[in-house]
Design goal:
Chain lengths: 510, 70
């Protein structure tokens, strides 16, 4: 009989660790998904180093109260993991679930280590709401903590399954959300609730599916095809992050660039012709290093983590292949958030400009392009990490400033020979400057006059003038030399000490 | 019926597709001009062009249907 407590420990531990994997519905569910503990060990270097609250929930027959909280290592670095077990009561939240989650959030912040949420939960348990909804110690503390943590340690949400209603704010408040296609969903009101409240008939996938969120709403940052890919992408992302805002992200060995394309042939001469800026990003980044953030959302701007000579760098680049590379509300939001993310975690920023401006017209104004454009300007002007701007082609008007033009104080302004910095492009400028004169000319002479003036204007705004006269650019660089130039400059600028202004908080346009 | 809509405000510069043509994902259907840029509008799924709803030179807002696919 003396062995009873030991047997009890063994039994209870085994029962809790099994979660609901032996339940009646689990086998089918596990055909396409990984069990929560398998997700955790796939992410970690091995098994977790320790676990808290394994026996929570056993009194009400819910293994681990449907959430697993562990500390372990990823590539030798400590991380904290909070992972819902969908096989245990559909991963729902009860009182102990809430206690376990908030305790781990506080622990991760104290230890200054990244916090990874592996989310797969049907939401809150209505039968436990009395303890969990209204008070000062209740579910809402999870979001309170997320906000407190934001920017101090990386918070990554990997959405494997549902996260409805309030639980949807876990991805909503993480800086990066990885979503599994055709599995992950997030919505405030379920299809049934939507039908009851507003009469709309809609499928779960169309309402809040992973693809919708990654391409349309912008909640999702990286779309992956299954659990295994979600874990691989999480590891790759984590490698770009430091442990906390107090550290710089690790610099790894330079993998070099095996066969760069000839960028002279990639960038079209005509400013009107679109091209894919991702070719330029691939050409300057270390081989195999590019991790694109929000690839399917607001494609007119590209935000990617890359390595330059082994050093992590965040790239913000206009892509004329989509919507002419013009800045819209969504593209401004996407870039602003990426800049805040990089700045928070000491990741230097590279801007590649090919911008004819912020979108104009009545629908853009009504939608609030000035507010959203101001948000991007705020993020750029606030950034204190090493920052280099490259003028690739067009650099017009407010777009030039939104994309970190010289007056926003980058560490360096570089230009390719194809750059055309100006307040407005040749067509607009000539029509504005010479409008009355053009109107006065006989119709037959107008075209020739306009063409001649445009040519003169285009020559006047060329990059060599910009480099020589107002000293707006530090250097004009051949595109095939750009990679080397950037590596050398980033290595130097990373020695600087950032200036941080003391105040409570800036009042951000949103 | 699938439709291809204008991604942004601008004018129709060139209509590339023809009625009856079988198009694939990523094929350029129409080229708009906006913000002094050529804006190629691509098919987002495969299909046969049933109707072209705009003419070259038309001014279009974002969301306007340019082409209908079967």
């Amino acid at each position: 009989m003396t062995n009873n407590v030991y047997e009890k420990l063994e039994q209870k531990t085994a029962w809790a660790k099994a979660g609901g994997r032996n339940g009646p519905k689990a086998a089918k569910w596990l055909e396409t998904r990984m069990f929560v503990r398998d997700r955790i060990s796939a992410l970690l270097d091995g098994e977790p180093e320790f676990e808290d609250g394994l026996l929570a929930g056993s009194e009400k027959d819910v293994p681990a109260d449907a959430v697993v909280t562990v500390i372990g290592s990823v590539a030798g670095r400590k991380v904290a993991i909070i992972a819902n077990d969908f096989t245990s009561k559909a991963g729902t939240w009860g009182y102990q679930t809430f206690l376990k989650i908030t305790r781990f959030q506080e622990l991760a912040l104290q230890l200054k280590i990244p916090l990874i949420y592996l989310v797969d939960s049907a939401g809150a348990r209505i039968d436990e709401q009395k303890q969990c909804f209204l008070g000062r110690k209740a579910w809402g503390n999870i979001w309170f903590n997320q906000v407190k943590i934001s920017g101090a340690i990386p918070q990554i949400c990997v959405l494997f399954g549902p996260s409805p209603a309030g639980a949807a704010y876990i991805p909503g408040l993480c800086e990066t959300v990885i979503m599994v296609d055709k599995q992950a969903t997030a919505y405030l009101g379920s299809p049934r609730m939507v039908h009851m409240a507003i009469g709309e008939e809609i499928s779960e996938e169309d309402l809040g599916g992973a693809r919708m969120h990654c391409a349309v709403s912008g909640l999702g940052d990286i779309l992956v095809k299954n659990d295994a890919e979600a874990i691989e992408v999480t590891k790759k992302y984590l490698a770009f992050m430091p442990q906390s805002y107090l550290e710089k992200p690790a610099v790894i060995a330079d993998r070099g660039k095996a066969a760069p394309p000839d960028l002279e042939k990639v960038i079209p001469e005509s400013e009107k012709v679109p091209f894919d800026i991702k070719v330029v990003i691939d050409a300057i980044a270390d081989d195999g290093s590019v991790l694109e953030h929000k690839a399917l959302f607001a494609k007119e701007i590209v935000t990617s983590f890359v390595r330059l000579g082994g050093m992590p760098v965040g790239v913000v680049a206009n892509n004329s292949k989509f919507k002419g590379g013009v800045l819209f509300n969504d593209s401004s939001d996407k870039a602003a958030r990426f800049i805040w993310l990089c700045n928070a975690f000491n990741i230097p920023l590279l801007f590649l400009q090919d911008i004819s401006g912020y979108m104009i017209g009545s629908s853009a104004e009504k939608a609030g392009i000035i507010r959203h454009g101001a948000k991007l300007l705020s993020a750029v002007c606030e950034a204190t990490v090493p920052r280099i701007t490259v003028l690739v082609r067009k650099a017009y008007g407010g777009g030039y400033l939104g994309m970190a033009g010289a007056p926003t104080q980058p560490d360096a302004m570089l230009a390719l020979p194809t750059a055309m910095p100006a307040l407005v492009g040749p067509e607009t400028a000539i029509n504005a400057i010479h409008f009355n004169h053009i109107q006065a000319l006989p119709e037959a002479e107008r075209a020739a006059f306009v063409a001649k003036k445009r040519e003169e204007y285009a020559e006047d705004i060329d990059v060599f003038t910009a480099a020589a006269d107002p000293f707006a650019v530090e250097a004009v660089v051949h595109p095939n030399e750009l990679r080397k130039e950037l590596i050398q400059r980033f290595r130097a600028y990373s020695l600087k000490t950032p200036v941080v202004y003391e105040k409570r908080n800036p009042i951000h346009p949103v | 019926m699938k439709t291809i809509k204008s991604p942004m405000a601008g004018s129709v510069w060139k209509i590339v597709a023809t009625v009856g043509q079988q198009v694939d994902y990523g094929d350029t259907i129409v080229i708009l001009e906006s913000m002094k840029m050529e804006i190629p509008v691509e098919a987002d799924s495969a299909g046969k062009v049933v109707k072209i709803c705009v003419a070259e030179g038309d001014v279009v807002d974002d969301g306007v249907v340019l082409v209908e696919l079967s």
